[in-house]
């Protein structure tokens, strides 16, 4: 039996007579008169009421179509409920870009293309001779050291193409960004431009000349610089429309070399392309040791070379598969709500798009899947796959000259190779960030499998910043202290590789240090770096210390959290020296009840509240000892509710008891009224604390 016709339920509820001519055939005149009255009643329009729909017998008992049956089966098996499916579909409608806005954006992109191609050329000069630049524009790059070989001249780009999520149809609102690759002509590049930041210097000068001429064009409402994914060596130029469409779109121009200009074999993770003699002013070591590798520097060059090939790959995989595009959009919302896609090393929307392409190539995702199925499949893969141990690759070639996954694991904490086999897509992703992504994926899968009524709200609608996701949070400020930390930790190769970014250079060592010190107390350690804000073309680029605050989140284990003892090896073992070196003056020899003499660290904590804050003592001690970061630069947030919980208890000690006479003796008995008053104060305080932390749900 088919579904009930539209409006049937409303007619039954209102008591309206149904028109069933076949049921009245063969009756007498009274039946015909009654039928005619019903026809007249049904045919008379009543203002403000929905009229019944006349359906034939074939339409009334029509069997459901294959599409309707498939939708019902999908809803039952994949969405757990019709409500969840409706919520997902409504969310996708909200984040998709409307067609009317696409037409206006396409018009703006065509104008950008024409204006970029018309920028005039400049004469040939040395890279260090930048007097040809007008006074109203600055080079968007820290040129340290300033002296570098090579020549530069500006020529109009060989081509300007749209790359990224806008072309693929996977961009999500509210902020619409369109990436355009501006291919620099071969004539302005030289064979050895991959050495000593020469390519990045030319790239920055190319952008500066574009910014000067486009900034004078009244067609643009805003022309500003920004860093590409937080990388200080790769600025980009931001263009916005003029007038009422200023917030419609932001176009990001990315200069890049011709796809086959640099040889990939020179950009392997084991190769060096920043000489110590140039960067540090030191002559090569005379003992015959080789230069330190520069894997991140090489990766950033490769990223510019593969912009076009990556968009072609994603276009082939996603194509007309609407379910895959919906899945990518849902994953971007999922990442944004957890702030996992922000700043340098974030797990960006581009990475999840490439991950979907990988799962399609391995047949773990099919092109006919819905967006919700793609979301579940990717979250399941992230929750069960550790890319810090076993990397993955999109490369299908069996060429023996290609580097192995083991070579990339030696240079990077997280490994995910592109289709060329030379570029690690996760080169900037730290192990802490990936473990945080894994942790959130596990929680999300448990939420989906649990079929909670508010699962959709918690999964995709509720913001989950670091202050909500972790037990304790610490802020390191000012960031200039990390420069001293790099000196203390002797991170010269990392600074040379990262172009002087001492925040990124020190981050890996600091997280490893704290993970080792917190030990069994720690379940997860994550970090967050706010994205560097854009700046005017007439200003110098922001320095590394201007990127705000480095935030670390600690997710703690209840087991062992309140232990005041760090037990080390026995005094006669060789590991005892390493233990003393790690803990410094805190380490001391102690004799235990079993007669063993061991190295140990004892933390001062009298109450349970102080024991829960032992991680604070561990963090400040290790940062001061090993990284030269004083406790005044560590702003620790933890145990804020302890004072709220303790204050009523202290009040009860003073007024919660009273003296009474029982049998001629004075005894102390509880004061019930005072205790109830304390509980009321506690409840009001907890409510205020929760309301202060509550925020409005946004997508």
Automatic annotation (TrEMBL):
Major site of localization recorded for this protein: nucleus
Alphabetical list of Pfam families matching this protein: Nrap, Nrap_D2, Nrap_D3
GO terms assigned for molecular function: RNA binding
Superkingdom of source: Eukaryota
Alphabetized UniProt keyword annotations: Chromosome, Nucleus, RNA-binding
Ranges for domain Nrap protein: 178-317, 324-462, 468-627
Compartments reported by the entry: Chromosome; Nucleus, Nucleolus
Homology family: Belongs to the NRAP family.
Alphabetical list of PANTHER family matching this protein: NUCLEOLAR PROTEIN 6, NUCLEOLAR RNA-ASSOCIATED PROTEIN
Name used for this protein in its record: Nucleolar protein 6
Organism expressing this protein natively: Odobenus rosmarus divergens
């Amino acid at each position: 039996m088919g579904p009930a016709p539209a409006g049937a339920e409303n007619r039954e509820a209102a008591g309206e007579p149904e028109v069933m001519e076949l049921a009245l055939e063969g009756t007498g005149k009274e039946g015909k008169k009654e039928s005619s009255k019903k026809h007249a009643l049904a045919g008379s329009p009543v203002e403000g009421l929905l009229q019944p729909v006349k359906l034939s017998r074939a339409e009334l008992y029509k069997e459901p179509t294959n599409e309707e049956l498939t939708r019902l089966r999908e809803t039952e098996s994949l969405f757990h409920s019709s409500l969840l499916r409706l919520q997902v579909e409504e969310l996708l409608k909200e984040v998709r870009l409307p067609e009317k806005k696409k037409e206006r954006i396409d018009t703006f992109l065509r104008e950008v293309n024409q204006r970029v191609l018309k920028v005039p050329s400049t004469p040939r000069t040395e890279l260090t001779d930048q007097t040809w630049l007008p006074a109203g524009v600055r080079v968007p790059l820290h040129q340290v050291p300033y002296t570098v070989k090579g020549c530069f001249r500006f020529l109009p780009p060989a081509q300007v193409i749209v790359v990224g999520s806008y072309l693929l149809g996977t961009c999500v609102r509210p902020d619409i960004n369109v990436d355009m690759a501006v291919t620099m002509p071969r004539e302005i590049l030289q064979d050895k431009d991959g050495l000593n930041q020469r390519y990045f210097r030319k790239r920055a000068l190319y952008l500066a000349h574009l910014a000067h001429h486009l900034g004078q064009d009244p067609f643009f409402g805003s022309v500003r610089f920004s860093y590409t994914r937080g990388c200080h060596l790769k600025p980009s130029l931001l263009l916005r429309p003029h007038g009422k469409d200023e917030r419609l779109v932001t176009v990001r121009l990315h200069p890049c070399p011709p796809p086959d200009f640099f040889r990939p074999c020179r950009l392997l993770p084991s190769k060096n392309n920043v000489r110590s003699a140039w960067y540090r002013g030191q002559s090569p070591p005379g003992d015959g040791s080789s230069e330190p590798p520069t894997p991140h520097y090489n990766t950033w060059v490769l990223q510019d070379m593969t912009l076009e090939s990556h968009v072609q790959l994603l276009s082939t995989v996603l194509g007309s598969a609407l379910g895959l595009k919906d899945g990518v959009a849902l994953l971007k919302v999922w990442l944004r709500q957890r702030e996992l896609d922000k700043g340098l090393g974030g797990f960006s929307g581009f990475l999840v798009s490439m991950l979907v392409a990988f799962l399609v190539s391995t047949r773990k995702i099919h092109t006919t899947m819905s967006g919700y199925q793609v979301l579940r499949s990717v979250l399941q893969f992230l929750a069960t796959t550790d890319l810090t141990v076993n990397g993955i690759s999109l490369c299908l070639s069996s060429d023996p000259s290609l580097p192995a996954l083991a070579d990339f694991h030696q240079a990077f904490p997280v490994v995910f190779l592109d289709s060329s086999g030379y570029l690690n897509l996760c080169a900037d992703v730290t192990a802490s960030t990936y473990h945080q992504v894994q942790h959130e994926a596990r929680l999300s899968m448990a939420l989906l499998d649990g079929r909670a009524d508010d699962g959709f709200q918690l999964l995709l609608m509720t913001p989950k910043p670091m202050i909500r996701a972790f037990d304790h949070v610490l802020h390191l400020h000012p960031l200039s202290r990390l420069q001293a930390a790099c000196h203390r930790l002797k991170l010269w190769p990392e600074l040379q590789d990262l172009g002087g970014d001492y925040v990124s250079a020190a981050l890996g060592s600091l997280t490893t240090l704290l993970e080792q010190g917190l030990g069994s107390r720690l379940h997860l350690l994550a970090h967050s770096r706010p994205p560097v804000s854009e700046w005017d073309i007439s200003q110098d680029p922001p320095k590394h210390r201007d990127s705000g605050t480095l935030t670390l989140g600690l997710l703690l284990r209840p087991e062992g959290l309140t232990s005041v003892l760090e037990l080390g090896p026995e005094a006669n073992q060789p590991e005892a020296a390493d233990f003393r070196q790690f803990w410094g003056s805190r380490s001391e020899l102690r004799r235990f009840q079993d007669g063993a003499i061991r190295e140990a660290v004892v933390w001062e904590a009298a109450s349970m509240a102080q024991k829960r804050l032992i991680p604070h003592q561990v963090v400040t001690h290790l940062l001061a000892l090993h990284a030269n970061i004083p406790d005044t630069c560590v702003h620790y947030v933890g145990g804020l509710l302890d004072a709220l919980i303790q204050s009523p208890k202290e009040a009860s000690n003073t007024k919660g008891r009273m003296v009474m006479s029982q049998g001629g003796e004075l005894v102390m008995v509880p004061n019930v009224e005072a205790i109830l008053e304390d509980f009321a104060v506690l409840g009001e305080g907890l409510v205020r604390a929760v309301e202060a932390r509550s925020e409005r749900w946004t997508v």
